[in-house]
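Figure 2 data, in text form.
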Amino acid sequence: MSLSEQQVKEIAYLARLSIDDGEVEQTTAELNNILGLMADLAKIDTQGVSPMAHPLNMSQRLREDEVSETDQSEAFQKIAPQTGQSHFLVPTVIE
């Protein structure tokens, strides 16, 4: 699949992108290169390949989930303009 310069202009208009007439040819070529790469990737046989969460074969070191700070919620709620039952109240923005 390749795009024409007219199609690139239409896409730019719909995406609210400003592309000068001098840039249309280069942008068209770059987009066609990207679409060509996507077509090449679509041809690759991925049967039997398990999905990966990360390209590197390693696990992330996790620390113990421990509380490391004191609870200061009461102090913060004392200085808040309005509070409810253990939460902050804010003005209604959308009705």
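Caption note: DSSP finds three helices and no strands in the chain.
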